[in-house]
Amino acid sequence: MPKKRKWISALFLCAITVALLSVSAVWADTNVSGSISADTRWNLSGSPYIVTGDVTVEAGMTLTIDPGVQVKFDSGFSLIVYGILNAV
């Protein structure tokens, strides 16, 4: 295969990889709302977490948010913590 063709093939594969990663990032959004009544971990594989309604961490429960996780809030909604919030 000529060098130019190999270079074009490599460039094409890179472009496809970037496109697939961009699409998979859109699919990874996790909408959250309601009561957290069991110990819960928000991790990178579900990031970003979109708060689409008030989220309440109940007394005695722990919400752990792993480093690098993005949490975004729709307008007017809150994270209410009666239990424990661990976040870095």
Give descriptors for this structure.
88 residues, four-stranded parallel β-sheet, three-stranded parallel β-sheet, alpha/beta
Determine the structural class based on helices, strands and strand pairing: alpha/beta
Number of DSSP helical runs: 1
**SSE ordering:** HEEEEEEE
Question: Can you give the helix content as a percent range?
Answer: 25-40%
The largest sheet, given as strand count, sense and whether it forms a barrel, is: 4 strands, parallel
Number of strands: 7
Could you describe the 3D structure shown?
- This protein is elongated.
- Strands 1, 3, 5 and 6 form a four-stranded parallel sheet that branches. A three-stranded parallel sheet has the order 2-4-7, with no helix packed on it.
- About 5% of the residues are buried.
- The chain starts with a helix and ends with a strand.
- Mean pLDDT is about 85; it is low at about 20-25.
- The chain is α/β, with parallel strands linked by helices and about 90 residues long.
- The protein has one helix and seven strands, in the order αβββββββ.
